[in-house]
Write a structure and sequence with these properties.
There is one protein chain. This protein is α+β, with helices and mostly antiparallel strands. It contains 26 helices and 17 strands. The chain has a six-stranded mixed beta sheet, with helices on both faces. The chain has a six-stranded mixed beta sheet with strand order 8-7-12-9-10-11. Strands 13-14-15 form a three-stranded antiparallel beta sheet. A hairpin with a 6-residue loop joins strand 4 and strand 5. The protein starts with 7 loop residues before the first strand and ends in an 11-residue tail after the last helix.
């Protein structure tokens, strides 16, 4: 068994009810590390081009990293990878909490789920012994009920990842939830799990994680945590959570409002971090081994939802279910967030798709006849909260909204694609690139679609938080598109991809340099591993992910933004009058492709680049 790994992958064939443990390929672990990288290598090799993402040929792959479950700061993360039913390309989600460490301590680095079960089941793993169990009592339950019932039936403490009715009903942006409130949120991987009739994975184990140099590893991890304890990042996150950035983004004119028709929300003081703290905050919540309690344990104290409690909302959720829908009621935003967690839905896509529907109704593209008599008006808090259940159960207009904004715009037509706010089918997060041009490049080059945490160039642009993880993350003027700064996007994509592979939280990349993580990886695995290996590893894995997307039909033309961002100027604020026009975006893409070593005409990785990275075996697929 290699150091820092359990050395085993669990393969679960749901059709046959067959479970086998196989040895982790050590050569793949060295090249693709773990987490999203290792899972993507399995996905690329085992899932054929063009398959139905909700069909039997897709595979759902859970994978931990070498640091997952160790004493390294915030080494709680695990990844899930499959072909996405929302985008039709590479799909990836990542979550914290404690499920990743629990899966690893149950004896396995990852799980490959294949086929479709004849009836609903859940997978239980106790001390390395896996079992598929009947799910007749769980199917149809919301996430908290599922976790509670599984725990009540077990003599051992379980850590659980499960789906709610959203996944069961194959909502195309259904999430996989763990620890009740933590989400593998993006790309609809909960729908893949639902299509396979797998309700949950429940883990318990006491296996130790062997490290090559345990004492030195602990010393480095201790110093890492001491540094974090003294940081302003810890102070800010513990006081206000991720929503602390809302005022900064709004002040820069990039806070998406009413489906991105505006970049400044006039009621920001009702939905910012202070409002969240004053109205619903109860306590900070942290992930396994994390010294920073950035999670928000919350409770609604007044009004019609008084007594409801849970975690969140996070920044993205507060915006997508708030300002994007014209909502300034923090209680309603919090309740909509709770329901997304309970039903198992991605809050970003849910809120963005609702906002899109509201504008379609405003413009007469959606009618009362189509909505079942509902008036879809911006600012209607009760409507937004009520739509969450309809989406999860595919009831009425919820059935259309369950498809996401891209599919909705294709069905509705009438020019609605202009303001369907997605890239490659994945709805955009809450930072408007018209107010920070380089973030638009980050959206179009992110492998899973419109996403901010692939590169998180929003850090040095919107919130003045440079990343020490890369050599230079400076963006001189966010309002100016500088092609030389495409290097920042490339470097951040590579580095943060490595975080998705080793099992670390990306917030740590703001404060800790690559040298710190190289030491941790080296002392954990025993590898001769340096900063150059760290950067090359991220580049290799990023190219593999891009190759999966290219194999599914992605070309340069797909690397584009919604027309609203390229043609409709922001009407107010510091970025008033600004767009990120097509010529500007194409200029940034040219620079990016050149830095990547990709073909500028097609956006495909070249054979030379793939060979340089040890990926010669997939070069033919790029032709």
């Amino acid at each position: 068994m290699p150091n820092a790994y359990m050395g085993k992958i669990l393969r679960v064939n749901l059709l046959k009810g067959k479970i086998e443990a196989e040895d982790l390929r050590e050569d793949w672990a060295r090249m693709f590390i773990g987490g999203a990288g290792l899972a993507t290598r399995y996905l690329y090799d085992e899932v054929p081009k063009g398959i139905d993402a909700l069909g039997a040929d897709n595979k759902l792959i859970f994978m931990t990293g070498p640091l997952t479950g160790t004493a390294s700061a915030s080494a709680a993360r695990y990844s899930v990878v499959a072909k996405s039913p929302l985008t039709g390309i590479w799909g990836h989600g990542n979550s914290g909490g404690s499920f990743g460490p629990a899966l690893k301590r149950s004896g396995y680095d990852g799980i490959i789920v294949e086929g479709v079960s004849p009836q609903p089941v859940y997978l239980k793993i106790i001390d390395g012994h896996p079992e598929l169990c009947d799910d007749s009592q769980l199917w149809g339950r919301i996430v908290p009920e599922t976790e509670d019932l599984l725990q009540q039936a077990s003599e051992r403490k379980l850590t659980i990842a499960s789906i709610g009715p959203g996944g069961e009903n194959q909502v195309r942006y259904a999430a996989i939830m763990n620890n009740k409130h933590r989400a593998v949120g993006r790309c609809g991987l909960g729908a893949v799990m639902g299509a396979k009739r797998l309700k949950a994975v429940a883990c318990s184990g006491r296996s130790g994680i062997e490290l090559a140099d345990k004492e030195t590893f602990r010393e480095v991890a201790k110093k890492q945590i001491e540094l974090l304890d003294e940081s302003m990042l810890k102070v800010g996150f513990e006081a206000f959570g991720t929503n602390m950035v809302s005022d900064m983004v709004n002040a820069r004119g990039g806070y998406p409002t009413r489906n991105w028709q505006h970049g400044v929300f006039e009621d920001i003081e009702q939905v910012n971090s202070e409002a969240l703290t004053d109205k619903v905050f109860v306590k900070g919540v942290n992930c396994f081994a994390c010294p920073i309690s950035c999670g928000r344990g919350t409770e609604i104290r007044e009004g019609q939802w008084a007594g409801s409690s849970g975690e969140g909302p996070e920044y993205e959720t507060a915006n997508t279910l708030g300002a994007q829908c014209g909502i300034s009621d923090m209680n309603a935003i919090t309740m909509a967030n709770y329901l997304c967690n309970e039903y198992g839905l991605d809050t970003i896509t849910a809120g963005s798709t609702i906002a899109f529907a509201l504008e379609c109704y405003e413009k007469g593209i959606l009618t009362k006849e189509q909505t079942g008599g509902l008036e879809l008006n911006f600012g209607d808090s009760e409507l937004v909260v009520g739509l969450i259940e309809k989406i999860a159960k595919r009831q009425g207009i919820g059935d259309l909204l369950a498809e996401g904004s891209k599919a909705m715009s294709e069905k509705l037509g009438q020019g609605s694609a202009h303001f369907a706010m997605h890239v490659k089918g994945l709805e955009l997060p809450a930072y408007d690139p018209r107010a920070a041009k380089i973030t638009g490049l980050g959206y179009v080059t992110a492998n899973r679609g419109g996403d901010h945490i692939t590169a998180y160039v929003q850090g040095p642009t919107f919130i003045d938080a440079p990343f020490l993880l890369v050599e230079d993350s400076t963006i001189e003027d966010p309002f100016v598109a500088n092609p030389a700064e495409a290097r920042v996007v490339v470097d951040l994509e590579n580095a943060l991809t490595m975080f998705d592979c080793i099992g670390a939280c990306k917030f740590m990349g703001i404060l800790l340099p690559a040298e710190d993580y190289v030491q941790l990886i080296s002392h954990a695995t025993g590898w001769d591993f340096n900063v150059a290996d760290f950067r090359t590893g991220g580049e290799r894995i990023y190219n593999l992910m891009r190759a999966f997307c290219v194999r599914e039909g992605i070309t340069r033309e797909a690397d584009t933004l919604p027309k609203r961002l390229m043609e409709d100027p922001l009407p107010e604020g510091p970025a008033e009058g600004m767009v990120i026009d097509k010529d500007t975006l194409e200029m940034l893409k040219d620079a990016y492709y050149e830095m990547r070593g990709w073909d500028k005409k097609t956006g495909k990785p070249t054979a030379e680049k793939l060979a340089e990275l040890g990926l010669e075996d997939i070069a033919d697929d790029m032709r």
